[in-house]
Every structure is written in C-alpha cells, then in structure tokens.
Amino acid sequence: MARLLGIITRQPVDFSLSIGQPQHITYSTHGWGVAWYDQSRKLHIQKGRRSALNQHLNQSVQTQIVTHQLIFHMRQATSGDVSDKNTHPFSYQHYAFAHNGSVNKEKLSAHLKPPFNANFQSEPIDSEIYFRAIMQKASEMEPQEAIKQVVKEANNPRGANFLLADGQTLYAYRFGLPLYWTRWREERHFSIQTPMGLKLSSTQLSSQVAYIISSDKIFSANWTALDDGELFMIRKNLNYESVKL
C-alpha cells in the first residue's frame, strides 16, 4: 500500500524533508514525491524512484521547502514499471495529485478526450488516468462535482484514495483504504518519522494551525478517520467541509 500525506496552513512555513532507509523490508517503497506551492502559488514537484530490493543503492533524499500546502506520496507499485516517471504526485496546470490504491485504467481512459488523453507524465499508469479524468470534468464544472462524477466509476475496494491540491484548497478522498485527518495546534517543534523512512520537521509550525491528512496515524493526536466515499476539503483560510459522495 502506498502512503499519502497532506498538510495545509494559513501562512507559509518551513519544512525539512528527508528520506532514509525503511524500518523493515515490508515498508520498502518504489518511489517518492512531494508537491508544494510557493508564495506566488507556483507549483513545484520533486520526486524519484527507489529500489525495494536493493535498498543499499538508494540515495538519501534531503530537501527544504517553504509552503502553505504540500502533498507527499510514497509509492508501492501496483500499476506500471518502477521508474521515475511513474512516481507521484502528477501535475496538470496548477493542480497536483497523488493516489493510493488501484483503479480500472481502461474504464476511466475510455472517457478521456483531447487534450486530457495526451502528454502524460507516466506510462500512463492508472493513477494518472484517474487524475486526468478528474481534470477533464473539472474543466466543465466545479472540482467538487467533477470528483463526485469520476469516483462513481473509480471506486474500487483496492483503493481510490487521493489527495488533490490547487494552491488554495486541499481535497482528500477516501474509498477502500484508511485515510485520517487531524488539526495541529501545538506549541512545540513539529517532527515526524514514519516506518517507510520519511522524516519531516518544521521549526515554524509550532506557531501555526494546520490540517494534516495521512494514510497512517503518524504521531499521537486526535485523528479522525474518513468514511468510505467521503470527500474532505480544506480551504486556505482553514475552513473545511466534508461531504459524502
């Protein structure tokens, strides 16, 4: 199972991100990626492949980010090759998207029309097809309604979870696999370390309120599980809305 992590704050804060070795072979991954927006709302993405079998060949990753919105993904491949181009997040215009699970690529791709069926960043794999299906609908209607229409066909017990960001709103959808959210308001240094090797810290988040979406309960907090078919949306002002699709 891949892992999703999303964070949104009112004001940009610093993040220090690093990826080392997983705690156990069962936590090995095939790729990693992070998407974030700078203060001008420009989207940045950094990502790469990892070897699950030859972990000693994996180089450590370290990056510094200042942002009010980020999404992070650790890939365990279920569709497509293990390669840089198949790692998440994917982008389209100012949107960034990361998926956890497996959806019917052929079923979703049958509905894609130009320009949404061309110039893929991956092979394409099922996750990017899922993303493009949402983008195509979002070109005709509001993102919430676009998501509602696409997930009707994408929902799969093997997982249709995703995080979608546009620099203003963070969208989190759950179907088939666990997904949690919590509100951070702690006057202490923010620092997490996951079994998959991710380390994320911030010196400035101690003075900020943030909403955090995660596939796992990655630190001790009052986590709320999203229901199957639930779409959770957090705006930049940190107002949020939850709807059942």
From TrEMBL:
Position of the signal peptide: none
Q: Pfam families, alphabetically?
A: GATase_4
Supply the alphabetized keyword list. Glutamine amidotransferase
Matching InterPro entries, A to Z? EgtC-like (IPR026869), GATase_2_dom (IPR017932), Ntn_hydrolases_N (IPR029055)
Q: Which organism is it from?
A: Candidatus Roizmanbacteria bacterium GW2011_GWA1_41_13
Family matches, as PROSITE patterns: GATASE_TYPE_2
Task: Check the record and name the SUPFAM superfamilies matching this protein.
Answer: N-terminal nucleophile aminohydrolases (Ntn hydrolases)
Domain Glutamine amidotransferase type-2, chain residue ranges per copy: 1-237
What is the protein named? Glutamine amidotransferase type-2 domain-containing protein
